[in-house]
Amino acid sequence: MMWFMERITLSRHSRCLKDVRTIACSLANRQRHGPSKNAMAPASDLGIVREKIATAGSLAVLTGAGISADSGVPTFRGADGLWRNFRAEELATPEAFERDPRLVWEWYNWRRELIATKKPNPAHDTVVEFERRASQFWLITQNVDGLHRAAGSEKLSEIHGNIWKVRCTVCGVVEDNREVPIPILPSCRHCQGLLRPHIVWFGESLATSDLARCAAALQSCDVLLVIGTSGVVYPAAGFASVAKQAGAFVAEINPDPTPHSDLVDVSLKGRAKEVVPLLL
Ligand code: OAD
Fold first, then answer.
1. Do 228 and 252 have their domain in common?
2. pLDDT bracket for residue 91 (50, 70, 90)
3. Which residue has a Cα nearest atom 29 of ligand 1?
4. Which atom of ligand 1 lies at the shortest distance from residue 144's CA?
5. pLDDT of residue 84
6. Tell me: the pLDDT tens digits for 156-172?
7. What are the φ/ψ torsions at residue 21 (nearest 5 degrees)?
8. Which domain holds residue 262?
9. CB 76 near ligand 1, within 6 Å
10. How far, in Å, is the centroid of ligand 1 from the Cα of 44?
11. What is the CATH number for 21?
12. Distance 207 CA to ligand 1 centre (A)
């Protein structure tokens, strides 16, 4: 657990990246010398993953922006990714908010307006069904759009926060807020302090309680599904390695290759809304 607690800051580079790479390399080598996962037809891969899920005593799911892409929420990276048009350091850092809170709120207002019109898709619905069927289940999402909760997921950690929550920069109170648009520079109804999005920005720490819950799920799960994440933002980028090292069967669902692709047992290429429902 100790290594886990060391990596609590949202970052594009892990302080322990070397460790993760070492684990990833050794696992990839083991796979290269074992039966080739690529030798199987996609239908066989689907069957294997479905069977693993059906017989798992404990199932964990890690999701990223790709699962919401099919609902119309833009991803962060890739051809149409948000970070192509915006610089993360200008918008998603505490320094950016201190420098220009109006700009940051305008960006979050734009995203709130966009997300407010979106609905969960069949992949979100299937994750709810996984939760209902599994004897032990935990969902770890990097998404702040709230679509997993909207679909009905209850056993989850929103490790990067939630765009529908605000936090007072003065008194620290966290509250739900679904105003669209929210007034630019909104103030706390308790102390009049400036509110900020309740989102973990680059350079900020993830909640220790969330990390502890995630560590427990990753270290005890029989199966981990990694859906729609580019696998470049830590600490979540290290989660597949953790589960794999603890003995879990790990499957990835993504239309494109990721840093996880060589590490996982099965990589299912395709869109979440099409592939994930086939795993029930
Ligand atoms: P990214 O935008 O980095 O990656 C999205 C992933 O989804 C890519 O690997 C795509 O190939 C994949 N993808 C695209 N369409 C898909 C589809 N229909 N089905 C399945 N997969 C699809 O998003 P994240 O990995 O979630 O942080 O990014 C991690 C964090 O970086 C985010 O949580 C955000 C960002 O900065 C915060 O907001 C704090």
1. yes
2. confident
3. 233
4. 38
5. 65
6. 999 999 999 999 999 99
7. -65, -40
8. 2-71+120-160+206-279
9. yes
10. 26
11. 3.40.50.1220
12. 21
